[in-house]
Design goal:
This is O-methyltransferase. The protein has about 180 residues and is an alpha/beta fold. It contains 7 helices and 5 strands, in the order αααβαβαβαβαβ. Strand 1 (about 65-70), helix 4 (about 75-80) and strand 2 (about 90-95) form a beta-alpha-beta unit.
Length: about 180
């Protein structure tokens, strides 16, 4: 798997990022192990400080139906599945076979296959087929496609739902010439 170069290109000061990554409590159990292994191998998952924020946010809003664009190895989808309750569900999309295989294995290992549906394919083709509505949408995929995905997300989002878009500053590279 390719390294995630954005993990080392924070928009805020490196010292602050290091502080947050060192001091914020790690996730327990299998989810924590998944995060640790991904970070050691440079697998593209959300940074720990983002995961902690997402965990806190989802704990507050308690969404039932979640859509994730960009499953990767299933870390953030697994985190979100902890917040949907017995009747909720996470739908996640990915197009890369290697990521799909890892995500499926991780969902199985974490025992959440009943709470997560992994849709295989390009989000540009999958999103128009979805009906929603979703209480929460997490967009964390090809940054160059966010503009294309946004109208679909708005259509799929419940009236009082929440859309969270990861890496909007692309590690500060949006300011590069």
């Amino acid at each position: 798997m390719a390294l995630n170069e954005m993990m080392d290109r924070p928009v805020v000061k490196k010292e602050l990022v290091a502080f947050m990554r060192d001091r914020l409590k790690r996730f327990p159990g299998e989810l924590g192990e998944l995060e640790k292994t991904a970070n050691e191998r440079g697998v593209p998952i959300i940074p720990h400080e983002t995961a902690v924020f997402l965990n806190m946010l989802l704990g507050q809003i308690k969404p039932k139906q979640i859509l994730e664009i960009g499953a990767a190895i299933g870390f953030s989808g697994s985190l979100m599945a902890q917040h949907v309750g017995a009747e909720g569900h996470v739908t996640t999309i990915d197009r890369f076979e290697v990521m799909i295989n890892h995500a499926k294995a991780n969902f199985e290992k974490l025992g959440i296959t009943d709470k997560v549906t992994l849709l295989e394919g390009d989000a540009a083709e999958v999103l128009p087929t979805l009906e929603g509505p979703y209480d929460f949408i997490f967009m964390d995929s090809a940054k160059s496609k966010y503009y294309e995905f946004l109208p679909h997300c708005i259509r799929l989002l419940k009236k009082e739902g929440m859309l969270v878009i990861d890496d909007v500053f692309q590690g500060g590279t949006i300011l590069d010439d």
